[in-house]
Design goal:
Blueprint (H helix, E strand, L loop, with lengths): L1 H22 L4 H6 L10 H6 L6 H10 L13 H12 L1
Length: about 90
Amino acid sequence: MEALKRANDIRVKRAKLKRDLKDGRVRIDQILRSPPEYVETAKVFDILMAVPKFGRVKAARFLNQARISQAKTVGGLSERQRTELVGLFDR
């Protein structure tokens, strides 16, 4: 029961984060630089999809440019990958 409760809490927090990203209250570079604990197991592709003006094609293109697999989690990003991905948003 404890694991189920924790999973539900994480889902609720991620949903709120995605809404905040869509509405512009949170910036994606902040999330990528220092991800909260509940985001570390989320796929980078899914988080990118929540960014305004990002669809499947643009998210996939960003990940390809940074040489990151679509299956990679936010917590699994290396420093190089993290820096490169944030750099793509700064352009």
